[in-house]
Amino acid sequence: MKKKGVLLVNLGTPDSPSTSDVRKYLDEFLMDGRVIDIPPVQRAMLVKGIIVPFRGPKSAKLYKEIWSDTTGSPLMHYSIIQRDLLQKRLGDEYHVELAMRYQNPSIESALNKLKLAKADSIRIVSLFPQYASATTGSVMEKVMQIVSKWQTIPDISFINSFHGDEKMIAVFAKNGAKYKPEEYDHILFSFHGLPQRQLVKGDDSGKHCLKVDDCCKVLNDNNKFCYSAQCYNTAYLIAEKLGLPKDKFTVCFQSRLGKDPWAQPYTSRVLEDQAKKGAKRLLVFCPAFVADCIETVHEVSVEYAEEFHALGGEHVQLVESLNDDPLWIESLEGLVKSA
Q: What are the start-end ranges of the H helices in 31-103?
């Protein structure tokens, strides 16, 4: 019987919340030329000379707040569960491995396990619903760098994105519905941000991104590979599933780094705008993440909640991610088996 290999890849997490491990993680992450897309010498000066030394201790404190003594980081915890549940669902015909793009388990170690298992084919599922060069593109590049050195290369296929996957949308909608969205003043669909320059570089035509009004808000042939456009598509599908009117929600982008313009509107500014309008209760979805992580359980639930309170708001409620929901595991199975 042929053995089919499956590699699930998420972004990554430090090995521990210690400052040294967080610095090691940030260094590998931010030195990726697809993440900070500037010349290598400038990138090294910025990352190794400024960001890692100064941000490392601050980030370590945040990781300590979300770290569990028994399960570690929530991202790793749920990623392991997702791997194990998918393996159980797929059965013995498949061999499922988990890797992180940065730190451990490494993509190379996971691919080597699939190689030793004599997998006839390998399906790479990058756990990012919306495609971006800095996430899925980076995973693809890393996988190809590694297997290009193998003497024998099995059939390898990639999932580019799954921003409109019906079962994924259904899980986010179900998770949100239990908080009764109608009882909140406004709803935010907050996605991880990207520099605008990366969005523009992804427009091969050079005529659409940031040159057409509302260039991201309707998915079409001109922007079908655009991260921002795919984010809007995901948000609209969840909103439609919940029956939300268009004036009830806003698509926004969090986690901005540096002073260059990033995808807009920024989540922090949407918080300000809603506070000025008198909103007291906000419900926040984070549909760029398939597992809760520091960007959800801390950045949204703690940092943005504190910002909103300071602006006169009363409550920010995070909608949990896909995590270990059985329907999400079904969705993963569909992605693995899709043509």
A: 40-46, 52-66, 74-90
Kindly report, residue by residue over 26-67, the tens digit of the pLDDT: 999 999 999 999 999 999 999 999 999 999 999 999 999 999
Per residue in 299-326, pLDDT (tens digit) is: 999 999 999 999 999 999 999 999 999 9
Q: Could you tell me if 282 and 274 are in contact, meaning their C-beta atoms sit under 8 angstroms apart? A: yes
Is the pLDDT at 1 greater than 80? The verdict is: no
For residues 82 and 6, the answer to whether their CB atoms sit within 8 Å is: no
Class of domain 166-318: alpha beta
Contacts of 17 (CB under 8 A, 6+ apart): 60, 63, 64, 67
The answer to whether domain 4-162+326-337 and domain 166-318 are alike in fold is yes
Domain ranges of the chain: 4-162+326-337, 166-318
pLDDT tens column, 144-153: 999 999 999 9
Could you identify the residue written with the tokens 């793009």? 101
Which among 7, 90, 319, 95 has a CA at the least distance from the CA of 190? 319
The residues near 139 (Cβ < 8 Å, ≥ 6 apart) are 9, 101, 107, 124, 126
For residues 183 and 2, give the distance between their C-alpha atoms in angstroms, rounded to a whole number.
52
Both structure tokens of 142: 């890393």
Please state, as a whole number, how many other Cβ atoms lie within 10 Å of the Cβ of residue 326.
11
Instruction: Give the distance from CA 274 to its chain's centroid.
Output: 25
- Residues 130 and 163: beta-carbon distance below 8 Å: yes
Task: Identify the DSSP state of 133.
Answer: I
Q: What are phi and psi of 330, to 5 degrees?
A: -60, -40
pTM above 0.85, yes or no: yes
CATH of domain 4-162+326-337: 3.40.50.1400
Please give the Cα distance from 117 to 115 (Å, whole number). 5
Instruction: Give residue 21's identity as a one-letter amino acid code.
Output: D
Say how far apart CA 77 and CA 71 lie, in whole Å: 6
